[in-house]
Design a protein that fits this description.
Elements: E1 3-7, E2 14-15, H1 19-31, H2 47-57, H3 62-86, E3 90-91, H4 95-107, E4 111-116, H5 121-130, E5 140-141, H6 152-164, E6 173-177, H7 180-187, E7 192-196, H8 203-207, E8 213-215, H9 221-228
Parallel strand pairs: 1-4, 1-6, 4-5, 6-7, 7-8
Antiparallel strand pairs: 2-3
Helix pairs in contact: 1-3, 3-5, 4-9
Amino acid sequence: MKQLLLFDIDGTLVRGGPAKNVFQDALVRIYGTAGPIDAWEFSGKTDPQIARELLREAGLPDDEIDRGLPRLWDHYLVGLEAGLREFPMELLPGVSALLRALEALQEAGEVALGLVTGNLARGAELKLGSAGIRLSLDVGGFGSDHEERDALPGIALTRARSMLGRSFKAREVVVIGDTPRDVACGRAHGTRTVAVATGSYGVEVLTATGADHVIESFSETEQVLRLFLPEGEGRAA
């Protein structure tokens, strides 16, 4: 396998769903408050980071936050699974065709596919499943692994080495996401980065992050594949 492609989920592959409302409900049930959740920026953060930020803003100390986290995640995941049955995630433009093409390349031994997402691993599985995406979670870094987003590519690379039986050099890895934090976590590990403007950030903001490539969407499958593969040296916008 020549390349390891690590995808973000929300705003990159899918959108919508009930996660924010479910998250708010779980916070109130466990801690009695969701903090300033209506005005809070979620994009590119891990679920534990978001919870800690909101609860600190509400005045809770870290030790109290930490004690409640296991129960928070239990409530959140039960609620998310139930909510997704009524409000499933929606595939973003071009994702279905792109994943079909990448699965063929994976079968041919050209690429390996994985995830780097702030979602808890089970949350990632539920969200992707609701949209009909069956990416393996065996290679990935998740919010349930570490609170800091920048740590997640390293975790994914360790799992890739274990599952696939080989190490990937940094420039053989592509981190793909829709936020400046996605780009930053890839750059922290020296990987290549592709930013897609299908979330909360436009092309201009994403270009300023120093991403290797910035694209409007995944709609042009062949163009996107060229960016992921070793020969893809041009920039698209």
